[in-house]
Amino acid sequence: MSLPVFQNYIDGSFVDGAETFESLDPSTGAPWAVMPAAGAEEVDRAVRAAHRALSDPAWAGLTATQRGKLLYRLGDLIAQQAGRLAELETRDTGKIIRETRAQIGYVADYYRYYGGLADKIEGAYLPVDKVDMEVFLRREPIGVVAAIVPWNSQLFLSAVKLGPALAAGCSVVLKASEDGPAPLLEFARLVHEAGFPRGVVNVLTGFGDTCGRTLTSHPLVARVAFTGGPSTARHVVRNTAENLAYTTLELGGKSPVVVFEDADLESASNAIVAGIFAATGQSCVAGSRLFVERSVHDRLLDILASKAKAIRIGDPQDTATEMGPLATERQLQHIEAVIERSVASGARVVTGGQRPPGFRSGFYYEPTILAGVENETPCAAEELFGPVLSVIPFEGEDDAVAKANDTPFGLASGLFTRNLTRAHRMIRRIRAGVVWVNTYRAVSPIVPFGGYGLSGLGREGGSEAVLDYTRVKSVWLRTSDDPIPDPFVMR
Ligand code: NDP
């Protein structure tokens, strides 16, 4: 039986890849579709199309309100096609259908949110100290945006880039990850149907070192919006030495979850499970380091171990499944290697620590909890991007802060306590871009998101993200008809 073939979307047309590769279904490990692998020539074509679109009246001539309506329409189409998009994302990445269906609802909301913001991007009038001058600021689209996303939530992570970029009037070349690109290549059909003029949005996939490098170093790219790991981010920053594109980076994390003895342990344990085992731990905000006040350490560990053992692992397309496979075999092997090194350096496996018995194919791994860990143990030091929780005891607030902040990352954090004054003290002291108090893994288009340290540069989401896709033009307009006074003196 022949496999379905996906196409890139360049300059308003769906085109076969000059080269192709097979995408694997993570639940079976077998090829299920053929994907295009964009090379340098295709990337160049897409960037040139995006650059042309910037001065094409079909796009540049739209009012901000008209741009907003297009985004709103795209949001509506995503909501209408949510079932198909969710099914494709689950098929290509192994993410469970319950999660992909719910997440696509948010994706539609992000496009609608930025559609609403398109005509609220305001300039300014400046009261300068010169009576014959009017000075005002215009906010103009920054130019061609290269948007690059990893495999774990491609529709969602591209919405936080395309939404504000298109609201601001930019054009975009979006590179889907070579792992699990199907939902984004399908999404391109909705962009087309929504009526965006040709070249405004281009969607392609290909390998990082060819497609990604050509895109981020292209001389016509003015803005790079990247989500991925810190080591790839360093490549991207080096690539942008070529075009000096303004770059934002959303990177990984090793997020701490801190539980004090006065916390509601039952509720906290559900949030901890959500933080590390949802999406099979393949989430940038995974709460992978758990710090527990020593007096409740053993009790919480027991609760968590029994919850982890009860998690239903299985076919990601089955709505009863709670944890599906990892997205790739490479990812599975990486996790196995880190667990092995962690156990060799003294970590104790409380539960999990292996591929689940009975799963002969697919990239499955058990929900895993490791105790007897320190921040230096490999499982607590390195981002695993898998269902692995490292548990570390602490004594008092100072110790909790020191241990939680002892990481080069700073993306998210969780705090569990019923003590309001302590919560406020901890919020100030924790070094992370997000602090969830008595909850975890909540998102909204209205709220900015981003990290400290190695977790990134810049913020996505929220209204200010739109400004990051604009450039300010300062306009000086002389209102006097008199000749210009002394031309040799700066005014
Ligand atoms: P990678 O950094 O490996 O890849 C990210 C993207 O960059 C992919 O599309 C990849 O392409 C591309 N790429 C690879 N090499 C280059 C290059 N030389 N130039 C330009 N682009 C390149 O990340 P993963 O796919 O492994 O994703 C996991 C990482 O993403 C984790 O660190 C995770 O924490 C982070 N992440 C951060 C989020 C945030 O919002 N802060 C959200 C989600 C994930 P290809 O896949 O084709 O190689």
Question: Can you describe this structure?
Answer:
With 491 residues, the chain is an alpha/beta fold. The chain folds into two domains: 8-250 and 461-475, Aldehyde Dehydrogenase, Chain A, domain 1 (3-Layer(aba) Sandwich); 256-437, 3-Layer(aba) Sandwich (Aldehyde Dehydrogenase, Chain A, domain 2). Helix content is 39%, strand content 21%. It contains 15 helices and 20 strands. It has helices at 40-55, 57-60, 64-80, 82-93, 97-117, 154-167, 182-194, 208-217, 230-243, 265-277, 294-310, 329-344, 378-381, 396-404, 420-429, and strands spanning 8-10, 13-15, 19-25, 30-37, 124-126, 133-141, 144-148, 171-176, 201-205, 221-227, 246-250, 256-259, 289-293, 348-351, 368-371, 388-394, 414-416, 436-437, 456-457, 470-478. A seven-stranded mixed β-sheet has the order 14-15-16-13-12-17-18, with helices on both faces. The model has no long low-confidence stretch (mean pLDDT 97). It binds NADPH dihydro-nicotinamide-adenine-dinucleotide phosphate (NDP). NADPH dihydro-nicotinamide-adenine-dinucleotide phosphate is lined by residues 148-152, 157, 175, 177-179, 207-209, 212-213, 216, 227-229, 232, 235-236, 239, 250-253, 284, 383, 385, 411, 456.
Could you give a short description of this structure?
The chain has 491 residues and is of the alpha/beta class. The chain has 15 helices and 20 strands.
